[in-house]
Amino acid sequence: MASTTFFTQKIPSVSAIFSIYTSLSAFTILFRTVLNELIPTKVRDFIVSRFKEHFSSYFNPNFTFIIEDQCDYVTNQTFRAAETYLPTLLAGITTGSLLVRSSNLKNPSAKPKFGIPVNAKISDEFEGIPLEWTLLSERNESPYQSRPKRYFHLTCKKEFRDKIMSEYFTYIAKASVKILTSRDNLKIHTYDPKDHSWESAIFQHHTTFETLAMEPEIKNTLMRDLDAFSNGKDFFKTVGRAWKRGYLLYGPPGTGKSSLVAAIANHMNYNIYDLQLQSVQDDAMLRQILTTTENRSILLIEDLDCSGADASCRKENKDEGEDGENQAKNNTKNPQVTLSGLLNFVDGLWSSCVEERIIVFTTNHREKLDPALLRPGRMDVHILMDYCKPNVFKKLAALYLDYIEEHDLFEPIEKMFLEVKATPAEVTEQLMVSKDPDVALKGLMEFLESKKMIEESEESEPKEAEE
């Protein structure tokens, strides 16, 4: 009886419980109202987020590195290294999708390349430490970049964070360099001003120094120079110069300037960034474009005398006709890209942003270039791409006529090259008429004789006018 009375006295009535609940509810509503009135929304959200972050990190045993595609003003080299390295780990992909790409226009049946789709997870292991990579993407708010912003998440156990920071990232950087050095396919990039990004395609130009029709002495000197540059990292560091090399290729149209660029790219195994200065709005945009290029690459700026960054672009010769006039009109639309802006990237402070870079300028008229571009130190090597000479002709004949070394027409044709200005492109066009050496060489001889008659008649016209 006593026990029953005790429990009856300890248990509150239903009305008492309801009264307590009502009081607590009223207090909660009052506290929330006061809190909302006194503390701004942003401060409340910050407190809540930090509270959640603290407890989630406390109970979460993992640590995540975030690797964005951009770092300050340039491409994040760690992101680029990961982008190069991770496709070698596709066997460890844990999600049920795979990116399949094929841009080989010359061989549609070639084996496609496999890549990492967004949100895919890839497993890796470094010295027994399990790692997980994830590629993520989100909308880019930058007015200079319309493409989505991409970044990697690298997750590991918290206790391995320091080791990953000090050793793993160095490991993938070195691995990516080896992959790029031995890459099978080169790429040629062009800048898209609408998307503010570089677009690329597989570069399959088959010209090499072996097949390049060029004066042997100039070719050998250039190859030695390129090899010395490639092995010159310590030298450039010792003398305090940016690791770059500049080449100016000048000469008439059709003398093989583009083919020489292809031979350099294949020899060095470098990608090409083909920049049309007419598509660049101003010097600031030019810096932003050039700093997003990669190491071990060729920056190509063709027809520099008509680029808009030089003093003027005068009308070309009769062979170029309307093209020269159209080019001049285009330059008037883009007066903001200045010569000083270009030079600042060639040999100014910004030239050190990318390492192991080759800069190639081409022009049909070196005499039109501003003297500042020709100053020593700007372009290290000037190479004249001249009209066809006997040595170049023999190389072309061997390439296009089944490696022929001797023919009765060789001597008269070689003599004609001393009297007539014919470009390698014109000679090649004649040699491709037939695989039969007799037919091809006879056609070339007739072409040169016709060209000689035209040149002689043009030379005689001014004399007759003077008389």
UniProtKB/TrEMBL annotation:
<keyword id="KW-0378">Hydrolase</keyword>
<keyword id="KW-0547">Nucleotide-binding</keyword>
<dbReference type="InterPro" id="IPR003593">
    <property type="entry name" value="AAA+_ATPase"/>
</dbReference>
<dbReference type="Pfam" id="PF14363">
    <property type="entry name" value="AAA_assoc"/>
</dbReference>
<feature type="region of interest" description="Disordered">
    <location>
        <begin position="314"/>
        <end position="333"/>
    </location>
</feature>
<dbReference type="GO" id="GO:0006950">
    <property type="term" value="P:response to stress"/>
</dbReference>
<feature type="transmembrane region" description="Helical">
    <location>
        <begin position="16"/>
        <end position="35"/>
    </location>
</feature>
<keyword id="KW-0460">Magnesium</keyword>
<protein>
    <recommendedName>
        <fullName>AAA+ ATPase domain-containing protein</fullName>
    </recommendedName>
</protein>
<dbReference type="GO" id="GO:0016887">
    <property type="term" value="F:ATP hydrolysis activity"/>
</dbReference>
<comment type="similarity">
    <text>Belongs to the AAA ATPase family. BCS1 subfamily.</text>
</comment>
<dbReference type="Pfam" id="PF25568">
    <property type="entry name" value="AAA_lid_At3g28540"/>
</dbReference>
<dbReference type="Pfam" id="PF00004">
    <property type="entry name" value="AAA"/>
</dbReference>
<dbReference type="InterPro" id="IPR050747">
    <property type="entry name" value="Mitochondrial_chaperone_BCS1"/>
</dbReference>
<dbReference type="InterPro" id="IPR058017">
    <property type="entry name" value="At3g28540-like_C"/>
</dbReference>
<keyword id="KW-0472">Membrane</keyword>
<keyword id="KW-0067">ATP-binding</keyword>
<dbReference type="GO" id="GO:0005524">
    <property type="term" value="F:ATP binding"/>
</dbReference>
<feature type="domain" description="AAA+ ATPase">
    <location>
        <begin position="243"/>
        <end position="389"/>
    </location>
</feature>
<dbReference type="InterPro" id="IPR003960">
    <property type="entry name" value="ATPase_AAA_CS"/>
</dbReference>
<keyword id="KW-0812">Transmembrane</keyword>
<dbReference type="InterPro" id="IPR027417">
    <property type="entry name" value="P-loop_NTPase"/>
</dbReference>
<keyword id="KW-1133">Transmembrane helix</keyword>
<dbReference type="InterPro" id="IPR003959">
    <property type="entry name" value="ATPase_AAA_core"/>
</dbReference>
<dbReference type="InterPro" id="IPR025753">
    <property type="entry name" value="AAA_N_dom"/>
</dbReference>
